[in-house]
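Incident log, structure service

09:12 report received: a user says their structure output differs between two submissions of the same chain.
09:20 pulled the input from the user's history:
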Amino acid sequence: MLSKVRAAALSGIEAVPVEVEVNNGPGETGTVIVGLPDAAVRESRDRVGTAITNGGYRFAMGWTTINLAPADIKKEGPSFDLPIAIGLLAATEQIEPGRLEDFVLVGELALSGEVRPVKGALPIALAAKAEGRRGVLVPEANAPEAAVVDGVEVIPIKNLREAASFLEGELDIAPCQVDTKSLFETSANGELDMADVKGQEGVKRALEIAAAGGHNVLLIGPPGSGKSMLAKRFATILPPLTLPEALETTKIHSVAGLLAGGQALVTQRPFRAPHHTASDAGLLGGNINPSPGEISIAHNGVLFLDELPEFKRSVLETMRQPLEEGRVTISRAAGTMTFPSSFMLVAAMNPTPDGKMPAESRSSPREIQNYLGRISGPLLDRVDLHIEVPAVKFREMTSEAASESSSVVRERVIAARQRQHDRLKSIPCNARMNTREMRQHCALADADKELLRQAMDELQLSARAYDRILKTARTIADLDAADTINAAHLSEAIQYRTLDRQLWG
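09:34 re-ran on a clean worker, output below:
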């Protein structure tokens, strides 16, 4: 007998509908799976067979063919266990497929018949909605994640028998429901606050500008000056995630397997800090089958690269396209995938190889230049703000004066972002303006043009650095609630091009 079950396969961060066809007929007892399955899917024959037996059903006798259609899409992972098992039970007439057509099934089976969580429940629920299905059957641990999709019944399943009974209509299971608004009320970053950082008021001001305009940042200072501490708190002054941003971020984390059990939604901006030994594939994504890397996992959040010159130059150079376009395209033999990677880069480095300031360093000028030369000019051009982080003075460390909290700074950042939204409409922040929008919104008076021309000549700035200065100046004006850029805004933006001035050489 032939049965058909609805499932889904992951392709990047999206899900593609898959039809699981199971045919059981006479012949020698055996099972074959076709339709471009990977090793994990082929292994499901043994898992499913044992799970069916331990679930109280009989093993399928005769020859069984399982086809995963369409056949030109790679099927990966153990998420096809549940639809294959249900298909086998329907093909051997052990269950009546009453509701089978209405639901998409996903889940890994344990040998006991229990249903284990899988990756990508959210994209699968979205695909089921787009396909017009009534709902999805997912492992209980994945139910909150899938339930953030409106208009789809999400049925939490504990084991194979429960799934079969529900599909036969013998068992009613209440759909999982999640209040997305309440998820945003709790802050996971509550323990981190800018007020914890003593001194460094100038650096905090620069980080506020970066947060307000979505600008990339490079922190330059000796060890112990607080670079890492400031970077870890940078996400706390960013505007909260919107629901569309949270859904997109959650899709990436779901596919990457980073959601905690029972977690419904990523409600805080991601903060990722890969080690400097990270490979190209680890940072950008890839492996044999393209999967999200650190820059995609940091989408809508912060990517922190500590000890920037220690990263392999080849790794850093591959980041140029994502920094510019907000997405990364990975081509492998298994296929080509494009992942979103619209993140804010916060990088940190020492001023010299031995970590000392140039005046105190024992490194020669050539050694310092070689150290700084590990970072290419084109990459530096894509970093809007180069911020000097001086060593903290003793009186600042022992001061009892209260510093501004992250919540206070965040309110100013949100207000500046709102001005940008009102002005730019579809563009999220100043850092994403194109040339046409810059001409329209970053106009300068003649005297200010002359100031910028002098800076360009003296610092030998590139055309891309020119754009970065204008965008930063526009953000500073937004923080001042000013309609136009003035000389003060422009001067402050110019001073954040430290490395362009070859300060350390």
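09:41 both user submissions now match this output. Likely a transient worker issue. Closing.
09:42 reviewer note: The chain has a mean pLDDT of 90. Residues 44 and 81 are 6 Å apart (CA to CA).
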